[in-house]
Amino acid sequence: MAKIIGITGGIASGKSTVTNYLRQKGYQVIDADQVVHELQKLGGRLYQALLSEFGTEILLADGQLDRKKLGALLFSRPNLLEKSSRLQNDIIREELANRRDQLAKTEETFFMDIPLLFEQDYEDWFDKVWLVDVSKGTQLERLMARNNLSKEEAQQRIAAQLSLAEKRQRAEIVIDNNGALSDTLKQVQALLDKERR
């Protein structure tokens, strides 16, 4: 029976830092965001669903999905965000379940990086949940810098997710990502060593 570990965190908390390290160590990681991007590509299942819901105003000139425009539209209107989430969640869940079941056949331990793991009720998929955690200030700074957002835009996106304080209460393992990269990776390595015992 494969051991499946869920990885989550707030937006800009450093999940990719952790998952990149896991991949370097030879572990398979299913990245929910990457799966979503694949499903949103021209002609993909999510692309079709979003197009029929929101029309061509969410497309770029070449017909691809304009993620920036879609994001701005959804985050400025909470009722649309909720509607879009419901629409997309079933398709995403089905695809993630397929990939999980495939990997479970070949891997002893693997990881799934799901940003909205708690919000979308994925807990029961996992043997353990690891939370990549940062302080509010660090999260805000990193998100503004990474996505080139104003403070207000960044706060809006953070507020759309469950707070890190709440996630801390629900995760089995908390990885502190406020310090140096080497400190974070040391924590991850120690967790991997523990899993192997």
Care to describe what's here?
By secondary structure, the protein is α/β, with parallel strands linked by helices. The radius of gyration is 17 Å and the shape is globular. A 5-stranded parallel sheet has the order 2-3-1-4-5, sandwiched between helices. 56% of the residues lie in helices and 13% in strands.
What's the arrangement of secondary structure elements?
Blueprint: E1 3-9, H1 15-24, E2 29-31, H2 32-40, H3 45-54, H4 67-76, H5 78-104, E3 109-113, E4 128-133, H6 136-147, H7 151-159, H8 164-170, E5 173-176, H9 181-196
Parallel strand pairs: 1-3, 1-4, 2-3, 4-5
Helix pairs in contact: 1-9, 3-5, 4-5, 6-7
Question: Can you give keywords for this protein?
Answer:
single chain; 197 residues; alpha/beta; 9 helices; 5 strands; 56% helix
Task: Summarize the structure in short.
Helices cover 56% and strands 13% of the residues.
Note the gap between the termini.
16 Å
Q: Give the DSSP E fraction (strand runs of 2 or more residues).
A: 5-15%
Radius of gyration: 17 Å
Helix fraction by DSSP (H/I, runs of at least 4):
55-70%
Order of helices and strands: EHEHHHHEEHHHEH
Class by SSE composition? alpha/beta
Shape estimate? globular
What strand line-up does the widest sheet have?
2-3-1-4-5
Query: Averaging pLDDT over every residue, what do you get?
Result: 92
- Number of continuous helical runs: 9
